[in-house]
Amino acid sequence: MAEGPELSFFDLRTVHDYFDKALMENDDIELTAYLDAYNELYKFFQLMGSVFSFVSSDLKQKIDVLTELRNKDDQNYTTIKSMIEYERKNKLLEKPNFVNGARTLLRLHRGLDFIREFLRQLGELTDGDKTSSCCQDAYNKTLAKHHPWVIRKAAIVAMYTMPTREALFKKVCGENIQRNIDVLPKMLEVTADVFDRTDNIYETYQMHALP
């Protein structure tokens, strides 16, 4: 467990900067910067506590898998395209007992759809508004499609306990609430670019339906 201030508050500027760095000129996504941004997003779920347990532990596992693949083979796991092409060429997508990067990143990609939609709706609330409804709506529009009924039910119930927007921002951002609110539109813009580009890559390789 991280100590003291190192379990720092969530910072949307950090997410923005890493996702911006991940956008390559050749319509590809650089994997290390993508994972760095996701580690900051994971911090958001950690700080929120058990209400997001339905997604946080799964995200951490996926981040760790991709980080390990990247560390072991930085040549083939440099970008999303190089990863997919390497795994397709070497038939790793069909290999039993191999946790491939393409499938793992697809799960993170779906999670990012939920995160950006939730943060988008959060930005439209006033300080006194409860966040539960917009979180449920964002979940139903995105991740719920990929979860079994038991998880969907538990997630929706957990979201009823969510605080007002002001309390939520204070919990995850500490004293830097206004800084995060100010950068939210730019963060959402670059996150949309990352999401759309990743989506296009998976569409090009016809890999959206990976089991």
Automatic annotation (TrEMBL):
Source organism per entry reads Ooceraea biroi
Any single GO BP term = negative regulation of interleukin-1 beta production
**Family in the record:** Belongs to the GLTP family.
Q: Which Gene3D superfamilies match?
A: Glycolipid transfer protein (1.10.3520.10)
A Pfam family name for this chain?
A: GLTP
Glycolipid transfer protein domain ranges (all copies): 29-173
- Protein name as annotated: Glycolipid transfer protein domain-containing protein
GO MF term list: ceramide 1-phosphate binding; ceramide 1-phosphate transfer activity
**Cellular component GO terms, alphabetically?**
cytosol; membrane
